[in-house]
Amino acid sequence: MARPPIFDVHVHVQPWEMVRPEVLAMLRHPSREGTKEILQSPERLLRHLDAEGIERICCINYVSPEVSGFTPEVNDWILDFTKGHRDRLLPVGSVNPLVQDDARGEIRRILDRGLRMVKIHPPHQLFAANAYRSDLPALAEIYRECESRSVPVMVHTGTSVFPRARNVFADPMPVDDVAVDFPALPIILAHAGRPLYGDTAYFLARRHANVLLDVSGIPPTALAEHLPRLASISKKVLWGSDWPSPGVISMRANVDAFLAIGYPDEVAADVLGGNAAKLFGAS
């Protein structure tokens, strides 16, 4: 099929100078060569997207000073970086109730500034997605505010090999509570639970009308094994590359590898951009 418009919902556009040294050492990889230069300005990034054949991206950020190194300032960094280019560069940030006292005030502030999606990263932020039901009630304020504005929340699912990450929080199942308690909140299960929880992620997407999956971090050649019934829920699957993570040679190469699998044209068009366009609106 001809390439449909590509909307990549999982691209890491972050201030790399914040990254903890031990994490940065893990991220050094030939596939990341030139990344620093590309991310020096939105104009350079847009030129790179044009060369890769990518129409729109979600620029992933989240507050995780203890594991990744990203402090609360990352929210204003991405909002400033994308200003004037939000038809193509959608800013993503977060509030971490463990390190930010006024979760309600901060989530309102950054959403008012134009944040398009909130990222929750349990293994890196060190709390479960449903921790509001026990010892982190402020987390509910984040979900509640996003639900009221129909702003999607992306939840990292699956393991992390970063130093200090806590993989006890890697299982997607706590999102079952979130989907029940906030039924109008659009929820995206980032990485579809890879590598251990594909069946759980698939179950949650089937069970809840407000739960979707993204396939970032899963090599396209492994999709048939990780999500063997992807075509049956293709209306709830979003494209993501996880660029510039190690092993992601290019966004274009990942798209080409996905198209080579041979999914029906309608499935491919929905996954590669149609579903995300419906979720976030036209550019």
- Provide the succession of SSEs: EHHHEHEHEHHEHEHEHEHH
Q: Which topology does CATH recognise?
A: TIM Barrel
Model regions low in confidence, pLDDT < 50 over at least 5 residues: none
For this entry, what is the oligomeric state of its chains?
A: single chain
Largest sheet, in brief, is: 8 strands, parallel
What would you note in describing this structure?
- The protein is α/β, with parallel strands linked by helices and 283 residues long.
- The chain has one domain: Metal-dependent hydrolases (TIM Barrel, Alpha-Beta Barrel), CATH 3.20.20.140.
- The chain has helices at 21-27, 35-38, 42-52, 74-82, 103-112, 122-125, 138-149, 175-181, 198-207, 223-226, 251-259, 265-280; strands at residues 7-11, 56-59, 89-93, 117-120, 153-156, 187-190, 211-214, 237-238.
- Strands 1-2-3-4-5-6-7-8 form an 8-stranded parallel β-sheet.
- Helix 9 (198-207) links the parallel strand 6 and strand 7.
- Helix 5 runs parallel beside helix 7 (138-149).
- The two termini are 23 Å apart.
- The mean pLDDT is 95.
Any chance you could write out the topology, listing elements then pairs?
Elements: E1 7-11, H1 21-27, H2 35-38, H3 42-52, E2 56-59, H4 74-82, E3 89-93, H5 103-112, E4 117-120, H6 122-125, H7 138-149, E5 153-156, H8 175-181, E6 187-190, H9 198-207, E7 211-214, H10 223-226, E8 237-238, H11 251-259, H12 265-280
Parallel strand pairs: 1-2, 2-3, 3-4, 4-5, 5-6, 6-7, 7-8
